[in-house]
Amino acid sequence: MENLSNIGTIKEILLKNGFTFSKALGQNFLVNPTVCPRMAEMCGADKESGVLEIGPGIGVLTNELAKTAKKVVAIELDKRLLPVLNQTLSDHSNVKIINGDVLKVDLKELISREFGNMRVVVCANLPYYITSPVIMKLLEERLPIQALTVMVQKEAGQRICAEVGTRQSGAVTVAVNFYSKPSLLFNVSAGSFMPAPKVDSCVIRLDVSKEPTVKVDDEKTFFSVVKGAFSQRRKTLSNSLSSSMGMDKQTVNEILQSSEIPQNSRAEQLSMEQFARLANEVYKFRKDKSNG
Asked: Got the DSSP string for 35-95?
């Protein structure tokens, strides 16, 4: 079906199916005709690969992905959109819609079942309210996917793609960089959607690394240190870590010293390698304490 970016066409389809937008589900449908073809082109899909899409909406992006990839599997939470998608994607035999919550779906099993040995990428216009949980689930579960190309709130995208060790970086920056190499592809104005959100968006791509970008002794400790370090980002690491990780300041200072990190450093100043060293020293301290 053509003209899925045309507001008149969208309204007609939605009216026919008795559909009303849900604020709770963060539904904003793309009406800018240039965005989805660019996403489909830049996501890394080709005629031999599969694409996992999350939240297809009325199928504007799905339609473009179906032209590019061998197979598209889209997970849609809102069952009211299923008849709409059946209508808008009727021209494509290589699309499968699954009604479900991406945060609860067994993605490893789904990818294995639906794509087999195909090369798989993710491409999605993510609702703002679940951006970080979805991205982290896709990365943490070590799924057989090569890249994630997602549209997110502009501010969130800038933080995710910020350079680790700069003021704009945060816990999510470090977490994403642990698993992948992020890049900001292009910005998308609020007027590109119906209804228009209050903020602009951007499209980012995360190229998934085969191995974590830094070597750590215990991943759980690494992420708790990162989270604790950024929990009070205006404070020094000495203060934020002692209050968030239940360690006295003297112990934290000793760990910082053995990690070769100045006590007055703040989380936003640390590199991936420094976070890894710090986490390894915390893990070693806890292990020695439990053995002692």
From this structure: HHHHHHHHTT--TTEEEEEE--TTSHHHHHHHHHSSEEEEEES-GGGHHHHHHHTTT-SSE
**223/276 Cα distance (integer angstroms):** 10
Confidence check: pLDDT of 190 > 70: yes
Q: Which two tokens stand for residue 39?
A: 């996403």
Q: What is the pLDDT of residue 193?
A: 83
| Spatial separation of the C-alpha atoms in residues 145 and 261, rounded to whole Å | 35
CA atoms within 13 A on the CB side of 85: 26
Q: How many CB atoms lie within 10 A of CB 198?
A: 6
**What are the structural domains of the chain?**
7-208 (3.40.50.150), 219-291 (1.10.8.100)
Cα 118–Cα 119–Cα 124 angle in degrees, nearest 5: 115
Tell me the per-residue pLDDT of 236-279, one tens digit each, with 9 for 90 and over.
999 999 989 888 999 999 999 999 999 899 999 999 999 999 99
Quote the strand ranges of the chain, DSSP E: 29-30, 49-54, 71-76, 95-99, 119-125, 147-153, 180-188, 193-194, 201-208
Q: Is 178 in contact with 222 (CB distance < 8 Å)?
A: yes
Q: Is the dihedral of CA 122, 126, 129, 132 positive or negative?
A: positive
Any idea what the Cα angle at residue 85 is, between residues 84 and 88, rounded to 5°? 90
State how far the Cα of 92 lies from the Cα of 138, in Å rounded to an integer.
26
With residue 111 as reference, give the H or E element that holds it: helix 107-115
pLDDT on residue 6 = 65
